Amino acid sequence: MDPRLAADLAALPELLESTRGYATGVLGGLDERPAAHPPVPHAAEPLPAEGTGLAAALATFAERWAPGFSGSAGPRYLGFVTGGATPAALAGDWLTGVFDQNGSSEVGSAGGELERETLGWLRELFGLGAGQSGAFVSGATMSNFVGLAIGREWLGERLGVDVARQGAHALGPVEVLSGAPHSSIYKALSMVGLGRDAVRQVPVRPGREAVDVAALRDALAARRGRPAIVVANAGTVNTVDFDDLRAIAALREEFPFWLHVDAAFGAFAALSPEHAPLLDGLAEADSVCVDLHKWLNVPYDSAVQYTRRPDLQARVFGNSAAYLGPLTERPDFLHLTPENSRRLRALATWFSLAAYGRAGHRDIVERNVASARRVGARLAELPGVRLLAPVRLNVVCLAVPGDPAEVARALADTGEAFVTPTVYAGTPALRLAFSNWRTAEADEERIVAAFRKVL
After folding, report:
1. DSSP readout, 283-323?
2. CA atoms of 429 and 449, how far apart (whole Å)
3. CA–CA distance, 455 with 442 (Å, rounded to integer)
4. Which residues, renumbered to this chain, carry the PTM N6-(pyridoxal phosphate)lysine (predicted)?
5. Rg of the chain's alpha carbons, rounded to an integer?
6. How far apart are CA 330 and CA 319, in angstroms?
């Protein structure tokens, strides 16, 4: 054994304790760490011919790289709908590396059963039915990818085509109907072979991002019975608007379509009695996307997908190899997801749900919504600032004086807040997404003060 590796093995308890101490210091300093850092070029060092051992590597990282890392785990990072990591989720993530289970195969490990239990807990949390089965994937983009890939296979089933064998070209032209699709839908369609141009945007309701259901009905009727995919939104990225899922699902009584619901972070509205009605009809979806490293506050990367058609899912993602075993009625997860190799992402989620339950995660959701409402109202009082939409859930979308991208950079330079620019209804804007379990009223004060400073 390499002498440095052997020395690290011998000193492993002490090394892990020093790493724990360093991590504790980083987390304890989140209030002082800048919410974001402008990227600074680093001259690449050559690959070490001889390593330095863990202790020296940690010291090098702490000196050379850690100072440039953002405070994205903290309470004033408001970009991209980014959560943090609850204490239990962080512990689960560390133990994921400790046990290093193969999350694809259930041979020789209880990891698959833990993932199935966790999926059941989440299914209950979001109000999905027992007929929805799922799997963990890396994020919302991959969850949408899986859902649309299954929907593509359903189209083939309706048209007498085995797409998994013959290819997407055998389907002919496909339409994907949606009111305000997230950019990841276009990316996923590119990856599944249906193409970005398959999207046909349906008119939305006036002043909303929610689809006009009557217009959607007309678009489906115009297809004269040819099946389509409909992508509905449960929480749009700019204004957290919700499509009328119940009304959309009811259209299947008249028209053939696969209903995919992008509920990347909007699904967590189910935890709040005030907002849970927004998700009425979610259980009727054929496939559902939910991103966990957003509002569940588990570490990157983590998301889940659910579907009513695991048989079609296995047809798409099944992997035939003698050493992997046969594809049974209860497939291993490698037959249900794009990756053959995957870590046991479910463990961090299992820990957070076991530790805090429905009540604890409901508290996170409701506190974040309250923060968004308070900060949105206070920012709207600043000269030249106006809300572009009501604060429906946890996102504030507002117009500001000047170039929003420059304002976002100025805010980041203060170290007090990180927000992202967007465009809503043709208006350049800023969006603030409150998703972190730590965010408190003291953080709201710092965010508002940073806006006052740069505007």
Report:
1. GG-SEEEEEHHHHT---SS-EEEEES-HHHHHHHH----GG
2. 19
3. 20
4. 294
5. 23
6. 14
pLDDT tens digit string along 334-346? 999 999 999 999 9
Q: Which pair of structure tokens corresponds to residue 325?
A: 């075993």
Residue 351 confidence (pLDDT) above 90 = yes
Cβ atoms of 164 and 148 closer than 8 Å: no
d(C-alpha 363, C-alpha 268), whole Å = 11
- Number of other CB atoms surrounding residue 400 within 10 Å: 23
413 CB burial (10 A radius; 0-12, 13-18, 19+): middle
Please give the full DSSP string across 398-447, using - where no structure is assigned: EE-SS-HHHHHHHHHHHTS-B-EEEEETTEEEEEEE---TT--HHHHHHH
* For residue 15, pLDDT beyond 90: yes
- Residue spans of the domains in the chain: they are 31-42+57-86+356-455, 101-342
CATH of region 31-42+57-86+356-455: 3.90.1150.170
pTM above 0.85, yes or no: yes
Angle, in degrees to the nearest 10, between helices 140-159 and 310-317: 100
Cα(290)–Cα(270) distance, integer angstroms: 12
Q: How far apart are CA 70 and CA 300, in angstroms?
A: 14
**Percentage helix, strand, coil, to 5, in the chain?**
50, 15, 40
Question: Span 96-119, mean pLDDT?
Answer: 92
CATH architecture for segment(s) 101-342 = 3-Layer(aba) Sandwich (3.40)
pLDDT single digits (tens) 391-405: 999 999 999 999 999
CB 179 within 8 A of CB 210: yes
Q: Count the helices and strands in the chain (H runs, E runs).
A: 15, 11
